[in-house]
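Support request, please re-run this one:
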Amino acid sequence: VRLTSYVDEARPRAAVMIRAGSSPESAYAMVALSGSDVIFQRRADAKQASQRPGTRSGMRAPLWLRLSRTGNRCRGYLSQDGSRWDAHPGGRCALDGYAPPAGKRRSFGA
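Re-run finished. Output below.
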């Protein structure tokens, strides 16, 4: 996801998320811009507390956020130019039992 501009606020306003299901307590992984911080946040298993294992401070738009999944592992990335990607600190998490519906994508407006 390319972020071209951003209003600096204290909570995430731009994020890429993958979830194990539609329940509010589902496992998930997310990379987001929050204020001037890019955060990686996760819930490794359903009904557990969310964790924020990594933050990179001092980031400003324009920038790119990416979340990839291989097997049951997720990893967050960020880029200033869209071609050189840095793995986000703490960017790995397991989504045990996650199987996305074929062809299902969702986007939400601001």
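Residues 106-110 have pLDDT under 50 and may be disordered. Strands lie at 2-3, 14-19, 28-34, 37-43, 51-56, 63-70, 73-79, 86-87, 93-94.
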